[in-house]
Amino acid sequence: MESESSLLSLVIVLLVAFFTPLLLHRFRLFFMPVVVAEIIMGLIIGKSGLNVIHHDMWLDTLSTLGFIFLMFLSGVEIDFSAFSSKQKKATLPNGTLEPNRLVVSILIFAGIFVLSLLLSYLFVLAGFIENMMLMTLIISTISLGVVVPTLKEADLMKTGIGQIILLVAVIADLVTMILLSVFVSLSGDGGGQMWLLLVLFATGVIFYFIGVRFKSRNFVARLSTGTVQIGTRAIFTLIIVLVALSESVGAENILGAFIAGTLVSLLNPDQSMIRQLDSFGYGFLIPIFFVMVGVDLDLWSLLSNKNMLLLIPLLILALFISKFFPVLILKRWYDKNTVLASAFLLTSTLSLVIAAAKIAERINVISAQMSGTLILVAVISCILTPIMFKKLFPKENVGEQKIKIVLVGANQMSLAVSKELSQSQYDTFLIHKKFEKAGSHTADSAFEILEVTGYDEAVLEKEGAFDADILFISTGDEELNSTLAVAAKERDVERVIARIESPDLAKALTEQDIEVFSTLLATTALMKALIESPNIANIMTSEETALHEIRMLNPDYNQMTLREFPFTGDVIIVRIFRGKDSIVPHGDTELLINDRLIVTGSLEYVEELTRELQYKK
Q1: Element (H, E) at 598
Q2: Among 27, 181, 366, 569, which is disulfide-ready with 370 (CB 3.0 to 4.6 Å)?
Q3: pTM for the full model?
Q4: Closest CA to 370 of 301, 427, 276, 424
Q5: Average pLDDT of the residues in 353-368
Q6: Could you give the strand order of the β-sheet that contains 403-408, starting from the edge strand earlier in sequence?
């Protein structure tokens, strides 16, 4: 009977995890993060509601694994390239030069931490909590899991203010996780043995150098396909080894998982592997953890305590104050609405607060009621802050940003393309190797070409080639094209296109998420199309029948079906590309932010549709 009961609880939790996003979609509750909805659903079926879930080995094990995997993915989310100070400073709409992103972000977090320390002292004086260090961590932490999706949805990830917000969140995530480990080491049974944490970090460094040494080996690439999937095996082994070592040195298992995540992020794995890990984590283990967080919360007991009830608004206010005053430094460069919106977004907190609350409760630093209050405040902050950010952030700051395209190698093809691309949508830069001979074919060229001494990585990096949104490499040497394409991907260039004629080399690059262009294959495909479909040339070359790509950025049309779409111009949507998926559009097909629509129709209507879909609130 006990076994049947345990399986029934697991089934209920899994069903709740499955139906939660469907319910959010059905009732169009898009403002609410799915993880917050999962906690609320857990409240309904747990101690605060129906009380139909009972703890057992199955649920406890899967919930713990979900917690570990959540901390691992939090480490993976950290983009260490954001710490690079090589970005060129842009001129802001008000005419001022934007600040040094890294320096300003460090100053803002330092201010957040100092204010959090002072506010924590006030909470201790008021008798709400006894441990000042724990409260400082709670107030100063920021949720990357809320910040990153919100910035992506607003199309702000590559803007100066977006990068500053992201950097502050990344620094907060790193610092608070390390301090949480120190807090556990000091407060737990193994207090005073903090030096053992150095063993864990040293092991992480060793694993990093091992990963760097073997990552690019040919045999690793061969073993990463089919039923072997050596890369995935290595990641899960890394997680388990570091989690076990973390517990062995008296730290929390989540520290080992977090370090494993940061190591994976530093090693720049294939994005397809990251998507697989996200799919496994957020599709199975992590929802179980968040539902169980809600199950264990006893709201009635919490709300019956006047101190806890008073603490909720005071702590929410403290979270905002700790972010608002340090962010005021940005007023030197940005308007007040941008600064206020940034402060609200940085107020969001979730995963690390839940981690700190649960750990502190387990080691008897705080009561179950206090733990529940801290988690409830985190949930409320995650609902409120993205809404306030979207309402306050000025739409003119999002602006219509041109896509930066760098073409490496001047030839008949790249020269023609550079002139054909729309100047209103693209900033095009053409880089070519300087010829020693006078009278070179570029000497009297009407094209604007940046001449460089050579195609070395260092030279191209100095000239800003790797800062492009799209990098098209088309020199006469396909081996060089391949080397530069890999180097660009390692520097996180979003799209890299390389001119490659060799099928084997093309296949190897495609596996590294590099797009390949072949003159031979393109010509063959066009000739075949001309023979089989004579009118194909007109479709590809005529302005009235040509295919156009439009990126959907207008939030007004997010989650709207094509049947409901009000735009009735003379345009047909031929295809929708979503990530790597190609979707044949139907009436029930929904438009999502960052969808790429392939359309055909009269140029006038295509331009009107482009303006409509790319208008960002």
Answers
A1: strand 596-601
A2: 366
A3: 0.70
A4: 301
A5: 87
A6: 449-452, 426-433, 403-408, 470-473, 495-499, 515-517
